[in-house]
Amino acid sequence: MTEFLDQDLTGSRFEHVSLRDSAFTKVRFTDSTLHAVDFSGALVHGAMFLGTRLRGVELVGVRISGELRDVVVNGVDIAPLVDAELNRRTPERAKMRPDDPDGFREAWALLERRWDETVARARTFPEDALHVGVDGEWSFIQTLRHLNFAGAAWVGRMVRGVVSPWHPLDLPWDEAPGWDDIPWDREARPSLDEVLAVRRDRQEMVRDVVESLTADQLASEVTRTEPGWPQEEGFPLKTCLRIVLNEEWEHRLYAERDLTALTEEK
């Protein structure tokens, strides 16, 4: 198999070329033109399609999971339609975009209750099963490790100002660029209780922030320019908290989905 590693192929031309069964990792297709290409059976994970235009395409049997904003299909912005349908199916989801302190307190309390239920369900599985990823996704324990990372990043660092709030078991997202001072051991196999011990600390941190949250704080901005991640200037504090709510909500759904898949495999 031919390998292209750490090469700049900017401006290259591929015509009547088969790349079937190829793997592309951290590859830039920015401003590329793809004409009469075949993506049948392709798996695209962790990709960015900002400003992408798809014309004359056939989308049949396609499954898309991700953030949708200003997604226009045949002249119709489908993002609000999808959002409304998801809220109709699960009305609690609408609570994950609060605008006032009480709304954030209600949303976080709801998330903690739902996660308690999911963790209780996970405890009915053998520990080894909680290290199994379904369809290439994170395992249950890896999902918890990622949520610990998200809480540390957006509340510990951005809101509370702790420059390096990390625990060795924290897990960034797979496509992250990598940082010298942030732990990232995807293959670690800690026990569920080890990860939950960190998680309880992170949940308490977020709870303390939202319980004391005021309208003035919610309207404020935060800046963190020290080495590490996130690095943001004038970033809305409200957005930091909303990111954590969204991460907690979506990843619990993924965890429940995968626990169901593991049950069906028994």
Automatic annotation (TrEMBL):
Q: Which Pfam families match?
A: DinB_2, Pentapeptide
DinB-like domain span:
111-254
Q: What is this protein called?
A: DinB family protein
